[in-house]
Amino acid sequence: MNSAPNLAPPEAPLLPGGLRNGRALWVVLIIMAMLAGCALLFARGSMRLSGDWQSQLSDTLTVQIMLENSEDWPEQTGLARAAIVTAVPGADIELVSQDAAKDLLKPWLGNAALPDDLPVPGLINITGGNISAARVETALIEAGVSANIDDNSRYADSLRGTATRLVSIGIGILALILIAGLAVNIFATRAGMTAQKEIIRVLVQVGASDKFIAKLFVGQALRRGALGAAIGLGLAAVLWAILSITNDWGGLGWTAIGPGVSDLLWLIGLGFIFALICAAAAGITAARQLAYERKRL
Amino acid sequence: MSSLPDLVNFERVALRYGRGPEVLSDATLDLPQGSFTFLTGPSGAGKSTLLKLCYLSLIPSRGLIRMFGRDSALLTNSERQAIKRRIGVVLQDFHLIEHLSVYENVALPLRVSGQSRASYNDDVVELLQWVGLGHRMQAYPPTLSGGEKQRCAIARAVIAKPDLLIADEPTGNVDPDIGRRLLRLFSEMNRMGTTILIATHDTHLIDEIDARVLRIENGQVFKGKPS
């Protein structure tokens, strides 16, 4: 027997779908994906900025040389400098001049000229190299220099705490948005099943299993979630990049999209998770709803 | 009397919707394998309800229904769906899926059972031509006439070569010529081994072929035409 000509139209999805259906749901999903993307980029940006700052602080030491009188400044700073050079050979050592040190007191003492005999502490900034506050302290004691060493640990701890809180806030917001996404998809699937009641009835009548029907809703939700995530996360990346370029964030050095492609990879991963959440919500809801309908029969 | 086992067996089956009166009470009937049966009775007698019980769309309030030798109350979900795949159903209101073409509506049982389009294309096209819908293959249900919808529903019910075909007024919306043609299709399927149960008011249809006749009166099932 000859094969019948294939005059049939291309296979259509069993559930009506597409962008034209449920525009409001599309808008909600896109906005949620965008907010999730912003929360992720905020958390990543906070983490990166905190890391940069901590790294800068851990590379820096400030030595305050305590003087009995101002005439000791050249001798004591010279001794201290020599001791530090020996203790941390690779470091960059900057001796702050006496005038510059006096300027640093102005915020507390005002702009009036300071007396010449005021024993302003000698300041030495040490940057880079393998800095060890303990080694510098030992070297200064051995050289007979009385000094305080500020290794910025107080600021670093405070900064670490703030950064942890910011990252936690970002992750918390992201988790809430994903939970909301789950709830929206549960609601949308229930509404979809009510709207497609006649189609489901026909499918059941021709012998479709619950799994088969649930898969249709999973496929629909997966496509919807993936496209919503692609658009929403793309918008988030663009928005974040624009904010980063057009604002200096008070000189904080905030960068939206991290160096390399790490943030983009995180966004793609979030997109997968978002789509999977949409699909899982649809699958579980459809299966439960079908089982419930069967019990009501 | 056929020696073949019963495909469907009702024992003192009753059904009521909610707290309403019993639509069926103590209905007892059997459909032997390979039989051709007409089910008749006045409007509202419970013909459609009895058919729904036969294709497992309702669960009886009491009584026992055996389908393909299995107690329907003990079927698991997968067994129930497997039995449904062996039953073709034509309903009065057709239940066609509006966003699918005629071709896809007819191919639905095969698609649901996991068959590839290539494996069923010839069968679907041939059947559509046979029921006079070859030229309407790409049309969508909202554009079909009542008769065309009915033929589409019948084609969908028979495409998977079911063991049991249940039809509710299958010739109600078609002209006499198409009606006779459809009845010939049912007879041919019956000759090939399909058990047929047709609910109808049409006494001419019942007279067309030699078949068993059951009638529903007062919620009970009797043998023979109405007097």
Largest sheet, strands/sense/barrel of chain A: 4 strands, antiparallel
How would the global form of chain A be characterised? rod-shaped
Task: Kindly report the average pLDDT value of chain B.
Answer: 88
Taken together, the total number of domains of chain A comes to: 2
Give a quick account of the main beta sheet of chain B: strands, pairing sense, barrel closure.
6 strands, mixed
Helical run tally of chain B = 7
Termini of chain B, distance in Å?
23 Å
Number of distinct beta strands of chain B: 10
Q: Largest sheet of chain A, order of strands side by side? A: 2-3-1-4
Whole-number radius of gyration of chain A?
33 Å
Count, helices of chain A:
8
Report low-confidence residues of chain B grouped into runs of 5 or more: none
Q: Of all protein chain pairs, which has the greatest interface, and how many residues does each chain bring to it?
A: A-B, 27 and 36 residues
